[in-house]
Amino acid sequence: RAIQGGLISPAEFGVLTIAYTIAAIPTDISLRLTALMAMPVVAETHRKDAGKAVEILNKFRKRTLSISLILFVFFAMFAQYIIQVLYDSRYHAAGEYLGPLAISNWLSVISAGYLSTILTIGKSKTYFIILSLQAIFRIIFTILGYYQSQIVGMIIGIGIANILSYVIIAIFTKKIGMLNLKMDFIFLFCAF
User: Fold this and answer.
1) DSSP state, residue 188
2) pTM score, two decimals?
3) N or C: less crowded end of the chain, CB within 10 Å?
4) Given this model, what pLDDT does residue 161 score?
């Protein structure tokens, strides 16, 4: 966000921050459910039976992705209305950013369970590498997106960074035997 704040005016940044805050609700719910409920169970089970841990992760991801998908679709479809109800006319422009932000965030939620699992099972070096790459992708594509299409370009750039991050996470998750491409593509397809 610091980069975005340097590229756009304070007024635009304020409007974008409102859109970010609302678009982050489904992501936050998904991440909290994953951290509080799934990861302790996956970690304990992985120590005893890695195959069973994959099964637990898949069941949990299916539930959290279903809840998140409903919320993301809701925010994407009713973005403008939500902003008009919650904020005065000075902030109504946030509605046009809320839909693309919801879609961009959806891409990161699909990989969030995997990323948490990588850390949970003790692959901290891999986790660090992935987070570093995510940060690099977001910085590069936020800047490129801005120069291509201003604020909407930044949002699209973050979406592209999230896709690249998913690919990296999928590679590492496949190595540890926890990747479920079928589920990922089903949920990705459902969002569009």
Assistant:
1) H
2) 0.87
3) C
4) 96
Query: Cα(first)–Cα(last) distance of the chain, in Å?
Result: 26
What is the C-alpha to C-alpha distance for residues 23 and 19, in angstroms, rounded to an integer? 6
Residue type, 31: L
**Tokens 């594509």 belong to residue:** 141
Q: Are 106 and 184 in contact (CB under 8 A)?
A: no
Report yes or no: 165 and 184 within 8 Å, Cβ to Cβ.
no
CA separation for the pair 7, 119 (Å, rounded):
33
Where would I find the H helices in the chain?
A: 2-7, 10-33, 39-48, 50-77, 79-86, 94-120, 124-175, 181-191
Model confidence pLDDT, tens digit, residues 53-80 = 888 888 988 988 998 888 888 877 887 8
